[in-house]
Design goal:
Layout: H1 23-38, H2 45-52, H3 56-62, H4 66-76, H5 79-89, H6 98-115, H7 135-155, H8 158-163, H9 166-177, H10 179-186, H11 191-204, H12 209-227
Helix pairs in contact: 1-2, 1-4, 5-6, 5-7, 6-7, 6-11, 6-12, 7-9, 11-12
């Protein structure tokens, strides 16, 4: 009699909460929730596996360590914005103004930070994220900050540009955008928050309301074109 060997699989203890969602995505979602709820040090891979409903060994099929999970979560909070800013910077000044580009980048960054699982941005300042294994995340965030500084310096009035180096301007602009992380602690961000933050970035550069309004309108068209949809903010 031929004996059928059991298939090598990654069995779950329970069915996934959202059918059709990949196991990897469910692990990231559960880990994000636990990291924010309990902190990184107090969260184990066993806890993450139990939250998902898989065996701990199954989790290791997707991620070798807890730090690998955290690194991917952090990446989701900065990589989309970095990719978008590179596209937008390539359009300055030939096809869009620096003010509109800065507004558009701020909008996209706020949207990214508003959509990360369980407000992952709250983990940025935890001591664990300063460890060497997260150098890649910090480098990418640094590149994004440099892009803010470069666009800000181009958009700024002469007085602001003379009085504030691009490096410092970049620091201030990215932290202004990351205010949305604090907003998410108490409520869901709204479209009005996105506009307020992006407009404040332009005001920080010394731009007056007529310029802010024009940049907002231009950015709305730019974002619609990049998304391949009707303009919106």
């Amino acid at each position: 009699m031929t004996t059928t060997r059991p298939r090598q699989g990654r069995p779950r203890h329970s069915q996934p909460s959202e059918p059709g969602t990949s196991a990897r995505a469910q692990i990231l979602d559960a880990a994000g929730e636990l990291f924010v709820e309990r902190g990184i040090a107090a969260t184990s891979t066993r806890m993450i596996a139990e939250r998902v409903g898989v065996r701990q060994a199954s989790l290791y099929y997707h991620f070798a360590t807890k730090d690998d999970i955290l690194a991917e979560l952090l990446d989701t909070s900065v990589r989309p914005s970095l990719e978008m800013v590179e596209q937008i910077q390539a359009l300055v000044p030939a096809r869009t103004s620096a003010a509109a580009a800065l507004y558009a980048v701020a909008v996209m960054d706020v949207r990214t930070l508003s959509s990360t699982p369980y407000n992952i941005g709250t983990l940025y300042l935890l001591p664990e994220v300063r460890a060497e294994q997260f150098d890649a995340f910090r480098a990418e965030r640094g590149r994004l900050q440099d892009s803010y500084g470069a666009l800000g310096a181009l958009a700024a009035t002469a007085d602001v540009a003379r009085g504030m180096p691009a490096e410092r301007l970049g620091e201030l602009l990215i932290q202004l955008v990351e205010v949305v992380i604090q907003i998410r602690r108490s409520r869901e961000p709204e479209a009005a928050d996105t506009d307020a933050i992006a407009s404040s970035c332009l005001r920080l550069c010394g731009l007056g309301e007529p310029v802010v309004t024009a940049a907002r309108d231009e950015a709305r068209i730019l974002l619609g074109r990049l998304a391949g949809t009707a303009p919106h903010v």
